[in-house]
Amino acid sequence: MKHPLFSLILPAVLALGAAFPAWAEKADRDKPMNAEADALRYDDLKQTSVFTGNVVITKGTTIVRGERVDVMQDPEGYQQAVSIAAPGKLAFYRKKRDGVDEYIEGEGERIEYDSKADLVKFIKRAVVRRYNGATLVDETTGAVIVYDNNTDVFTVEGGTQNKTAANPTGRIRAMLSPRAAASAPGATPAPVAPPAALRPSTTLGNEKN
To answer: Pairing mode, if any, of strands 153-157 and 199-200?
Structure first.
């Protein structure tokens, strides 16, 4: 006889695994997913899974952390996932880019992922970083950052939610390295996926002083 708790955990884990497919490199799709949390509530009728308490999710190179992670599936089978940080902390996500030694990291008080649009949104105290190996090459901060997995394009919004003692205006800040400087010395670009920087939206240059 199956344990009742197993019957709840298994569908929830399967639903959550489908919620983050585009965050990982292609090889991650075939890797097992592991989830740790203090508690889980799964509603089969509503197709929702709620993990609470120091949630840590790993699937291949993909890591997702938060105090709470909610996963919802619509009638078409698309998932929306929301990771919420504990008070005073930040939710976290990290993935390896396919075919190159590059990683994308992001943090925010709230992280939303829409599998249908393939967009990741980092909300409040948001930051997105790109690493070449262990070397930080790009970093952007703002009130809201939206990252498009389809195109590697991101948009950044400033505002009152981005105000700090070090940044009283709340304007966005970005550090974007030149391609030559960001590339590892002597590294040979992989033909299947040459290194590519995050490309800011052209609307960033239209901000009025």
So the answer is: parallel
Q: Nearest-CA neighbor of 195 among 98, 86, 77, 67?
A: 98
Residue 156: CATH number of its domain? 2.60.450.10
Residue at 52 is within a domain: yes
Question: Across-strand partners of 186?
Answer: none
Q: How many domains in the chain?
A: 1
Structure-block tokens of residue 7: 């019957």
β pairing state of 79-84 and 110-114? antiparallel
pLDDT in tens, 30-60: 666 678 999 999 899 988 889 999 998 777 7
Closest by CA to 60, choosing from 93, 100, 32, 37, is: 32
Instruction: Look at residue 209 and tell me if it is in a domain.
Output: no
Pairing of strands 79-84, 62-73: antiparallel
Task: Report the SS3 class of residue 205.
Answer: helix
The model's pTM is: 0.69
- Burial class from Cβ neighbours inside 10 Å (0-12, 13-18, 19+) for residue 32 reads exposed
As a whole-number percent, the residues of the chain with pLDDT over 90 amount to 30
Are 78 and 117 contacting, i.e. CB atoms less than 8 angstroms apart?
no
